[in-house]
Design brief:
GO molecular function: oxidoreductase activity
CATH class: Alpha Beta
Family: Belongs to the short-chain dehydrogenases/reductases (SDR) family.
Helix content: 40-55%
Distance between the termini: 34 Å
Bound molecules: NADP nicotinamide-adenine-dinucleotide phosphate
CATH topology: Rossmann fold
Protein name: SDR family oxidoreductase
CATH architecture: 3-Layer(aba) Sandwich
Organism: Paracidobacterium acidisoli
Largest sheet: 7 strands, parallel
Keywords: Oxidoreductase
Shape: globular
Strand order of the largest sheet: 3-2-1-4-5-6-7
Length: 237
């Protein structure tokens, strides 16, 4: 598969879980993938497995909570590749487990700055490259918690409801430049998200299932785009 040959993809949260699977998939389709997350060890492991399989990947340590870190990431991509065809805003944190009135303000900030402000800042940093090219894909990884109430996860749900609104609105702002902006909303996926143990892990949605959806979105024929994909497990756990 070389459908993405010559294209550059930036994937946030690519050090493990869903982001790792998305990065592997895009690299297997021929894209040069820039892997962004804080843990350099994780990024180097993912880069190693992509290059061992014949793909192209680069590890780029970045903290999405920091504007300067995102600006540095975008500048590296601009200087090295001069383009960004695909941006996948996947990095996210949960801080799930307590009712909102018991949540510490620092945890609220962490959730919002990673899950909602992070995608705003990456779009701000990378959209100019896409606008110059008059093409591009932005895929934001939201959650079914962005459609439903989530008891003891109000901040997380609010960040994902917000991400959906951001996505639909930015899609309207960028469509005139040939840039397509989509959101993927998975149910519970078999990863270490929130540090939780994988109960009935094999019955859950797998990271490769989300990677498959992203691959589908970025290979959609140019005259149309898919705004949102909701992903559910076939069997209930
Ligand atoms: N797993 C689920 O059940 C599920 C369901 C629906 C939606 N989602 C969404 O899917 C996305 C990925 O989740 P996952 O399950 O793959 O989670 P995960 O296994 O915990 O991976 C999260 C990734 O995000 C990175 N990250 C977190 N904070 C970051 C920051 N400040 N700067 C840069 N990178 C950061 C982590 O790397 P570092 O810690 O090294 O930075 C890691 O690579 C999230 O947006 C999540 O909300 C997950």
């Amino acid at each position: 598969m070389g459908e993405l040959k010559g294209q550059v993809a930036v994937v946030t949260g690519a050090g493990r879980g869903i982001g790792e699977a998305i990065a592997q998939r895009l690299a297997s389709m021929g894209a040069a993938v820039v892997l962004a997350a804080r843990s350099v060890e994780d990024l180097n492991r993912v880069r190693g497995s992509i290059t061992a399989a014949g793909g192209e990947a680069e590890a780029a340590a970045a903290d999405l909570q920091k504007e300067s870190s995102i600006a540095a990431l975008a500048e590296m991509v601009r200087q090295r590749y001069g383009r960004c065809d695909i941006l996948v805003n996947n990095a996210g944190v949960g801080k799930i487990g307590r009712p909102l009135h018991e949540m510490a303000p620092e945890d609220w900030e962490t959730v919002m700055s990673t899950n909602l402000r992070g995608p705003y800042l990456t779009i701000r940093a990378f959209a100019p490259l896409m606008i110059a090219a008059r093409s591009g894909h932005i895929v934001n990884i939201s959650s079914l918690a962005g459609h439903n109430p989530l008891k003891n996860g109000a901040a997380y749900a609010a960040s994902k409801w917000g991400l959906n609104g951001l996505t639909y609105s930015v899609a309207e702002e960028l469509r005139e430049y040939g840039i397509r902006v989509s959101v993927v909303a998975p149910g519970s996926v078999n990863t270490k998200f929130g540090g939780g143990a994988a109960e009935h892990g094999e019955r859950k949605i797998q990271p490769v299932d989300i990677a498959h959806v992203v691959a589908m979105l970025v290979t959609q024929s140019p005259q149309s785009f898919v705004s949102e994909v909701l992903v559910r497990p076939t069997r209930k756990a």
